[in-house]
Amino acid sequence: MVCEKDLMKILLLGRSHTSYAFLSISLRKSFQEKARYYEISQGSLEELHCECRLASDLEYIAVNEFERIDEHINRVSYLLTRLKSSVLISP
Predict the structure, then answer these.
(1) CA dihedral 52, 80, 23, 21 (to 10 degrees)
(2) 34-70 b/e (C-beta count within 10 Å ≥ 16 → b)
(3) pLDDT of residue 30
(4) CA 65, 68, 71, 75: dihedral to nearest 10 degrees?
(5) Comparing C-alpha atoms, which of 68, 63, 70 is closest to residue 48?
(6) What is the pLDDT along the chain (91 residues), one digit of tens a residue?
(7) How large is the angle between the packed helices 4-12 and 17-57, nearest 10 degrees?
(8) CA 63, CA 80: separation in Å to the nearest integer?
(9) Domains of the chain: which residue ranges?
(10) Are 27 and 7 in contact (CB under 8 A)?
(11) What is the C-alpha to C-alpha distance for residues 33 and 88, in angstroms, rounded to an integer?
């Protein structure tokens, strides 16, 4: 798969400035869409975390079960944050 930087290099090596401007706009939109997707994902994860905490507080799940779930949620949050930082390089 060709990354965004590679596409820019290809365009710079012999394509017109119009094509470069078009691709730049397209990549920016793609960047914004990715950023929005990751924001929604992080928000959904936080919502899940709050719901699990509430379930624990209301004793629908045991405290040790919540702690296990909490560890998984924290790990996913960490991975999502790392993914966002690796993928969302400024446009």
Answers:
(1) 90
(2) eeeebeeeeeeeeeebeebeeebeeeebeeeebeebe
(3) 76
(4) -110
(5) 70
(6) 445 555 445 444 544 444 544 455 455 567 778 888 888 999 999 999 999 999 999 999 999 999 999 999 999 999 999 888 887 665 5
(7) 170
(8) 25
(9) 4-87
(10) yes
(11) 10
Say if CB 88 and CB 31 are below 8 A apart: yes
Question: Residue 9, exposed/middle/buried by CB under 10 A (0-12, 13-18, 19+)?
Answer: exposed
Return d(Cα 10, Cα 48) in angstroms, integer. Answer: 43
CA-based max dimension of the chain = 65
Helix residue spans in the chain (DSSP H): 4-12, 17-57, 63-87
